[in-house]
């Protein structure tokens, strides 16, 4: 399933690109809301990086939350 990893302090979660639901791990509620907003704005870039990863290509850096 297409996903990305989000880190906040000592916590980490794998989050589905399409639904933005947590697949594994956890984040505090406020951090999760921000990550979901970020993922919605950058969905195309996340999907492109997922495709690149599946093809064994180098990933493009996606700007973190400010």
Low-confidence stretches: none
**Overall geometric form:** globular
- Oligomeric form: single chain
| Total count of strands | 3
Radius of gyration: 12 Å
Average pLDDT across residues? 96
Classify the helix fraction into a percent range.
Answer: 25-40%
How many H/I helices? 2
Secondary structure class reads alpha+beta
Total domain count: 1
Instruction: Please describe the biggest sheet, giving its number of strands, its sense, and whether it closes into a barrel.
Output: 3 strands, antiparallel
User: Termini separation (Å)?
Assistant: 27 Å
Adjacency order of strands in the biggest sheet: 1-2-3
- Helix and strand pattern: EEEHH
The percent range for strand residues is 15-25%
Tags for this model:
alpha+beta; globular; 38% helix; 66 residues
Model description:
It is a single chain. By secondary structure, the protein is an alpha+beta fold. It has one domain (3-54). The protein contains 2 helices and 3 strands; from the N terminus they run E-E-E-H-H. It has helices spanning 29-41, 43-54, and strands at residues 3-8, 11-16, 22-25. The longest helix is centred in the middle third of the chain and has 13 residues, at 29-41.
Write a brief structural summary:
The protein is α+β, with helices and mostly antiparallel strands.
């Amino acid at each position: 399933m297409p996903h990305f990893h989000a880190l906040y302090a000592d916590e980490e979660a794998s989050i589905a690109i399409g639904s933005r639901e947590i697949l594994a791990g956890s984040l505090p509620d406020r951090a999760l809301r921000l990550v979901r907003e970020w993922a919605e704005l950058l969905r195309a870039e996340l999907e492109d990086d997922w495709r690149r990863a599946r093809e064994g290509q180098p990933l493009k850096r996606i700007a973190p939350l400010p």
